[in-house]
Amino acid sequence: SSVGARVSGVEGTIAAARGRVRACYQAEVNRNPEAKGRVSYTISITPSGQVGSVSATASELPSSVAACVQAALSSLRFDAPEGGASAVVRGSYSFVSQTAPTKKLLGRVA
Questions:
Q1: What are phi and psi of 87, to 5 degrees?
Q2: 1, 18, 10, 21: which is closest to 90 by C-alpha?
Q3: What is the pLDDT of residues 61-108, one digit of tens each?
Q4: Sign of the torsion formed by the C-alpha atoms of 70, 57, 39 and 98
Q5: Order of strands across the sheet with 87-95?
Q6: In angstroms, how far is the first alpha carbon of the chain from the final one?
Q7: What ranges in the chain are assigned the alpha helix state H?
């Protein structure tokens, strides 16, 4: 969600970071296959569309994942907010465990 001046294309800009954000989570999964949780973020956008600041906090995940997401979002470039004002964007990423239980299929082959 955005607060302050309207910024067009926010969803697309955030989506552009998806691969880098996923890599942050994947690095944790490599250490802990059961890793799951949420990273919430707040991005302050300057009147020129640059990222002024980013804060990210993790729930159920190590702070290293939040720090990695924060770094990934810090490099984004947004469209300039309307009216020459600054804006704030808040959102979150949810990550689920990649270790789904496997099911054995039992049956007869005719």
A1: -145, 165
A2: 1
A3: 999 999 999 999 999 999 999 888 999 999 999 999 766 554 445 545
A4: positive
A5: 2-4, 87-95, 37-45, 51-59
A6: 56
A7: 10-16, 18-31, 63-74
